[in-house]
Structures are given as C-alpha cells and as structure tokens.
Design goal:
Order of helices and strands: HH
Largest sheet: none
Structural class: mainly alpha
Number of strands: 0
Shape: flat
Length: about 55
C-alpha cells in the first residue's frame, strides 16, 4: 500500500464533511464526479466561514 502524500492528506481533511454526509445518505462520495460531495462541502464551509467573516468585518 502506497503512503499518501501531504497534499492527499490535506484534501482528505477538507473533503471530510461532504464525504461523511454522502455516506450517511447512502450516496457513494465519488459518484457524479464528486459534485454532490462538493455541494455539501460548500454548504458546510459556508455555514462555518460566513459567520466568522461577519464577526471579523
């Protein structure tokens, strides 16, 4: 088994919320070229980062 590079590990961490949501819904995360997982990731990070930006600005 090949070890993951640092970039792969960072990508796994950033994509983790969308992957877990897809798994809970029974949708394979790689289906549809990962677009469903990307949508969930954008929604999660929007809900996290938008309030932080409002506080800072």
């Amino acid at each position: 088994m090949a070890q993951k590079s640092t970039a792969d590990k960072i990508a796994d961490v950033l994509l983790w919320p969308g992957t877990k949501i897809c798994e809970m819904m029974g949708v394979p995360p790689a289906d549809d070229m990962g677009l469903i997982r990307s949508m969930f990731n954008m929604l999660v990070y929007l809900c996290i980062l938008l309030p932080i930006l409002w506080i800072i600005l």
